[in-house]
């Protein structure tokens, strides 16, 4: 039975969060999102003409996400550079998580490139990446119907928790752990990312999703604050 | 007048609800969903009677017919140049639309080559295609001088009422200048004057909302010229 | 076109951002331990708007057969597409390779790391240091910022716990032992535009450059690495001048490393 979390957090408590936008001046938009020891950087370039031309869509623009972990971001051995099947899948689900809030019909033949780099990883990396990417898209002035906020929920032992860290993800006693990364649109509470790793009953899953909804809203508050504060600073520097 | 959920000049984020009413009309940076008006941008709310819009700090230039723009040649085919004008899509200049007479099948690179800068006018904007023309006096390849980039929304301020601001800078610094609606400004003169002109333009960009800006810029240029005069003695 | 403009400004002793020809942008900063929870050592170097991070991961492996009692240093660099709109995703191109190798040479040829002390069992087990460099914002002069970040990451490094019997590293347990460092190489890149020299070029100034010389200098003022880049040749007198400039300016960079 998992009665007390390894880091003493409450079951519905997130790790410490910090967020900042406009950190990469050469990019059209950028953001940093840190949750616990996981640090994600996101940069947006575009909309810009898409090369190679055969990838272009004459009906609307495309969103292209690239998720990467730098070599010294892993808690164990060095991460070999280059895309892996895992990073390619994460790039895909990130695109799917962000697309619902974008209307790219105004940008035929163009691409919006989102680059996400993990400087340090302690679980919840794709969630941190999506959260940072959403802020970066807003920072770039890309029209969005809503932000996207993302965090993991799950089961450790038999207890539903929010924002699993690596220790909890690796928990092996009893039924082990279940990791459920989710992303939601804060205004309409729709799910744009949903994955699950582990074994869970339907009842527990829906309990977890309810907790996840609340947790995503906590993430949204931080995104809003960072965007507004950094905007005001940007205006001051004008 | 229905429910306004935000104040004028408030900073909002995409997805934030601005008003709950059929009385308001979204005119930019916002959209209606059923009876709610929602922001699509990170920016400042601007409420004008029944019109609500959100003014973003950043954003790419939106091309409009008849705009004069400054672009860079980034590609070419048999009959077209492809020009970067800072938009999501590259603009197209057909060989029949330049001010020169060019034979069909001629080598386009002889006229404008990769990296060349041109002043052109937007002839037509359709979905994904921006057509340029140079068949107008004053539109030409820009040789020598320098280009600076500003936010396209600040261009009117840089030009000034009936061109008053830009003319003042041109005369004070003895520079030729051209302002593209796409936020690119071309300056040609002595290098130190080009530098001063670009500083003046940056000053206008940063203080666009200020009163008495023309006088402030005039004073700034006079001061800097005095300083330079001393330095070069 | 801006190339001519920048060159003519420089011939009049002026730069776009108002700096002197031999002036570094401000701030010049180093932050240590930016990935302290995952790396064995890491650092971020900032010169003006240019930002580079570097980090160290250590492994235990076999030495090279011809130097059985020496540890191994491998320096890599990846020009992250997030740092510059011109960079594309994909395996390191020649620009990244040059960056890594120039930084590597500065560290290796100065014998900064006492690699004999990295030997665990001669011919069988030595420590391997993987030093990776990543630009985060490329506003020009990646070489100098990368060299600073790289060496700062080495300074920040602590050995992870190595169980000799099990031949296993416990990355979660860090020791208090730093790397055996014997020197502190600092690199300065001098740019030639027409007949003038500048340091710490912005992106636009890099675009206008005729030639560059990166000079790595040790604590006792020896030159331990040189790299000439750019398409225009330089005379011996010019190299002499550029090296003098590097000697002068690395003093400033060295202070930041302290």
Q: What are the SSEs and their pairings?
A:
The complex is a heterotrimer of chains A (238), B (233) and C (258).
Chain A: E1 17-21, E2 29-35, E3 38-49, E4 62-69, H1 85-98, E5 110-120, H2 125-139, E6 149-156, E7 159-162, H3 166-169, E8 177-185, E9 190-194, H4 202-236
Parallel strand pairs in A: 4-5
Antiparallel strand pairs in A: 1-2, 2-3, 3-5, 6-7, 6-8, 8-9
Chain B: E1 3-4, E2 11-12, E3 17-20, E4 25-28, E5 30-33, E6 36-39, E7 43-48, E8 51-56, E9 68-76, E10 80-84, E11 91-94, E12 117-126, E13 129-133, E14 141-142, E15 146-149, H1 155-159, H2 164-173, E16 176-179, E17 184-188, H3 191-206, H4 213-231
Parallel strand pairs in B: 4-8, 11-13
Antiparallel strand pairs in B: 1-3, 2-7, 3-6, 5-6, 7-8, 9-10, 9-12, 10-11, 12-13, 12-14, 15-17, 16-17
Helix pairs in contact in B: 2-4, 3-4
Chain C: H1 2-11, E1 28-32, E2 41-47, E3 50-61, E4 72-77, H2 94-109, E5 119-121, E6 125-137, H3 142-156, E7 158-163, E8 168-178, E9 186-193, E10 196-199, H4 203-207, E11 211-217, E12 223-229, H5 236-257
Parallel strand pairs in C: 4-6
Antiparallel strand pairs in C: 1-2, 2-3, 3-6, 5-6, 7-8, 9-10, 9-11, 11-12
Properties at a glance:
heterotrimer, A: 238 residues, alpha+beta, Ribosomal Protein S5, domain 2, five-stranded mixed β-sheet, four-stranded antiparallel β-sheet, 29% helix, C: 258 residues, 26% helix
Structure description:
With 238 residues, chain A is of the alpha+beta class. Chain A has helices at 85-98, 125-139, 166-169, 202-236; strands at 17-21, 29-35, 38-49, 62-69, 110-120, 149-156, 159-162, 177-185, 190-194. Chain A has a single domain, classed as GHMP Kinase, N-terminal domain (Ribosomal Protein S5, domain 2), CATH 3.30.230.70. The model of chain A has no long low-confidence stretch (mean pLDDT 95). Chain A is 29% helix and 29% strand. Chain A has four helices and nine strands. In chain A, a hairpin with a 2-residue loop joins strand 6 and strand 7. In chain A, helix 1 packs across helix 2 and helix 2 (125-139) packs parallel to helix 4. The mean pLDDT of chain B is 91. By secondary structure, chain B is an alpha+beta fold. Chain B is 21% helix and 34% strand. Chain B folds into three domains: 3-56, RNA polymerase II/Efflux pump adaptor protein, barrel-sandwich hybrid domain (OB fold (Dihydrolipoamide Acetyltransferase, E2P)), CATH 2.40.50; 68-142, Beta Barrel (OB fold (Dihydrolipoamide Acetyltransferase, E2P)); 146-231, K Homology domain, type 1 (Ribosomal Protein S8, Chain: A, domain 1), CATH 3.30.1370. Chain B has four helices and 17 strands. Chain B has helices at 155-159, 164-173, 191-206, 213-231; strands spanning 3-4, 11-12, 17-20, 25-28, 30-33, 36-39, 43-48, 51-56, 68-76, 80-84, 91-94, 117-126, 129-133, 141-142, 146-149, 176-179, 184-188. By secondary structure, chain C is of the alpha+beta class. Chain C has one domain (2-257): 2-Layer Sandwich (Ribosomal Protein S5, domain 2), CATH 3.30.230. Helices cover 26% and strands 34% of the residues of chain C. In chain C, the strands form three sheets. In chain C, strands 1, 2, 3, 4, 5 and 6 form a six-stranded mixed β-sheet that branches. Chain C is elongated, with a radius of gyration of 19 Å. The chains are: A alpha+beta (238), B alpha+beta (233), C alpha+beta (258). Chains in contact: A-B, A-C, B-C. The interface between A and B is medium-sized, with 36 and 29 residues.
